[in-house]
Amino acid sequence: MSALITPDQIAHETGIVWLEDPTDLDYVRQVLDRLPRRAGVPAFHRDGRMVGYATLGRQAKASRASGTYRRRVFWLAPHDRDQAPAGAYVSGAPSEAVDPRTLKPTVPGHKTERSEGGPPSEAMRALGITLPKG
Q1: Which of 3, 18, 111, 125 could cysteine-pair with 96, CB 3.0–4.6 Å?
Q2: Half-sphere exposure of residue 109: CA atoms within 13 angstroms, side-chain side
Q3: What does pTM read for this prediction?
Q4: What span, in angstroms and rounded, lies between the C-alpha atoms of 89 and 78?
């Protein structure tokens, strides 16, 4: 599903469960998956590893069409910075990546200088674009 998650899509979250300590992760990828339950470890079918997931409260309603719930899953691909520090994301980050320190239940999270791989580039500074420090 879309990497551009809005607060209304995650309004019924009650918690985030981390399967790995996010402290040392510069970023995690976040996606909304359709899952059969409000809580519990979801099935994971991506090339990479799941590092966390959101849980939903009882007020969350299943889709009438599919009977599934939309829940956030946080994950990393094998070529992400934590496993390949000199790889494709030595600077920058995937479009769906956010700094895990900015994530909370019902809060989509955002990119920071840390998640983007360091201080802003000269071009960003020239355009007046700044990211939070994290």
Answers
A1: 3
A2: 26
A3: 0.86
A4: 11
